[in-house]
Amino acid sequence: MNVEQDLKVIAEQEARLRFERFDPAIAWMLGQRLKETAERLHSAIAMDISLFAQPLFYYAMPGTTPDNADWIRRKRNVVQRFHRSSYAVGLWLKQKESSLEERGLDVREYAAQGGSFPIFVQGAGCIGAITVSGLPQREDHELVVEVLADYLKLPYEELALDP
User: Fold this and answer.
1) In which element (H, E) is residue 4 found?
2) 3-state secondary structure of 123
3) Are 78 and 86 in contact (CB under 8 A)?
4) How many CB atoms lie under 10 A from the CB of residue 93?
5) Is 20 exposed, middle or buried (0-12, 13-18, 19+ CB in 10 A)?
6) Is 75 in contact with 43 (CB distance < 8 Å)?
7) How far is the C-alpha of 13 from the C-alpha of 51, rounded, in Å?
8) How confident is the model over 60-103, as pLDDT tens digits?
């Protein structure tokens, strides 16, 4: 994995994976697609789609634990704080040889691990996050990107991180 290349691709993902509008019906459709994709991959994940002030969708698949819900909360807090994907923030910190703690953030409240992606709405900015937990962090991140690309009718191959 090349951190600099991944950060460049993630910036492109964040720039292109944006909504014209976002509402609870869209959250429901995305949540169903996340669940179906995870089932197809035979993966057990927990998933959450939230506006920063309101949960819209949550599902924990069999095989997940309460720890997954806590990881979701902490990853979502990173997106809310930085308006970047939690994976991008983690890679950026790694690149800077820094940490959340050095930036004054409590790791019991924040997790700069892959799996939470900002919900950007054109004209409104970052309004929430789509978060999954249960896979290795890079796979958590890519699962969300794949589902978003499909929903927004963008070619995932152009947005995927290098294997």
Assistant:
1) helix 3-16
2) coil
3) yes
4) 15
5) exposed
6) no
7) 19
8) 999 999 999 999 999 999 999 999 999 999 999 999 999 999 99
Beta strand extents in the chain (DSSP E only): 18-19, 46-51, 54-60, 116-121, 125-133
Alpha-carbon gap, residue 115 to 130, rounded angstroms: 8
Separation CA 57–CA 86 (nearest Å): 19
Point out which residues pair with 51 in neighbouring strands.
Answer: 54, 128
Of 53, 57, 100, nearest to 75 by C-alpha is: 100
C-alpha 145/C-alpha 135 separation (Å) is: 14
> Which residue's entry shows tokens 């949550």?
58
Q: What is the pLDDT of residues 94-151, one digit of tens each?
A: 999 999 999 999 999 999 999 999 999 999 999 999 999 999 999 999 999 999 999 9
Q: How far apart are CA 86 and CA 122, in angstroms?
A: 21
Q: Which residues contact 94 (CB under 8 A, 6 or more apart)?
A: 3
Give per-residue burial for 119-134: e unless 16+ CB within 10 Å, then b: bbeeeeebbbbbbbbb
